[in-house]
Amino acid sequence: MSDDSLIIYEEEIKQIEAILTRLLKGAEAKCALLVDKDGHMITRQGFTQSLDTTALGALLAGSFASTKEIARLVGEPEFSVLFHQGKKDHIHMSIVGERSILVVIFDDRTTIGMVRLYAKEASLELTKVFQEIQNNSKGGAGISDDFSEEAQDKLDDIFQD
Amino acid sequence: MVSINYSAREVCCKIVYYGPGLSGKTTNLQYVHSKVPNNTRGDLISLATEADRTLYFDFLPINIGTINGFTAKFQLYTVPGQVYYNATRKLVLRGVDGIVFVADSQPEKMDENIESITNLEENLKEYGYDINNIPVVLQFNKRDLPGVLPVEELNARLNKCNWPTFEASASIGNGVFDTLKKIIKIVLDKAKSSSAPKIRSAPAASGPTPPPDVQAMSPEKSELVREPALPPSATGEVRSSTGKIIVTEAAYRPYPGSEKEAQREKKISSVALASSKDDELAAASLEKNVIAHDNKTEESPIRMHTPQMAPSLKRRGEGKKRGFFKRLFGIK
User: What is the pLDDT of residue B249?
Assistant: First the structure.
């Protein structure tokens, strides 16, 4: 279970955020989120204050997972890009490396072509960063010894019938 | 797989409620949602059918606050229990850290319980997990109903791996929190035991001091991040780094579209995209950009890479048009 732990350090998050910021500037999108396939939000850039990014991450990952099953049923290993078109806002999702999803939310101030172009470029860069994360995390890391005990104390306070 | 984000100071665990249809998985989540304080939980999201049967999953995020400088977050999921939803049920298990198996205590549901546990084992195996190694808590639900099977019998038939068990009546809340607390404890203990021991000695816990593993790695990391004005102590560096990240997010540039250069870039790129064969061009420009990024300086990444793409695309696009009109009107 610990073999595939995702542990991201300060330096890598900064790299990722720089890539997302470049993507936003280039594509003129509203915001960009990086979600792992398990539904955890890794990081986000742009105008995300009004969004429930936790729920969004879980739903987007779910959406991608179900699409992957659909792909498998029609004989494809995976659909690497997903696009949802709305009245005002649209969502472009693309796969990054083995385990992450790059989500770009944009409106009519830009075009799907621009978003696609820059997202593709960002995906390539992010894949490299994730490769580094993967390599770095092999040393093993985890939570501190007393984390579990303190969590239990907090849970006793919160979970009251 | 516990996800640890050192930058956002988050530890995130995924807990899945598994079990046969109508055993009370969603009810467990609904009870948790109704009882925990608003500032601790997010919205309960249910992807359900018209008849309120779970179609894909229910999702409830819980944030129990900061421990040792890290925010502990738990994501509770349920699966659709009905047999024919196995494809979606399996998807929810991806990246799971702990499982609560909700068994129905009624005698006529025993076969479904056994079938569901077998199905859980198979689905876990497909992700490379072993049911013997993954944290599982068994919940015998619906204990308030008349004629339910005795706990000993349920335990004998369902508890394959000596998992902790709890009696529960999810509809009135009995045993719901006990189950959840137990699974969280096992998940966190497991995450702890799988960690490297040396860099994780207990910190002098005071306020937002980050845990020692962060302190251990921070000096070299902060050098890379370039924060020369930081105080010499490792702790200070980390705190400062965190502050910087928050600032980065808050002080995000104004909404795009106002900068002239950005508009110019868009225009040029749009022309390029419109002038057919865009895939070839895009691929070519992407290759160039990747090379450009490798050599980029930190100050202005955008300015470094866009002109790389723009002139070549512009030349090619315009060249074609000029040639076309020249031929059309016979201009030499």
Answer: 32
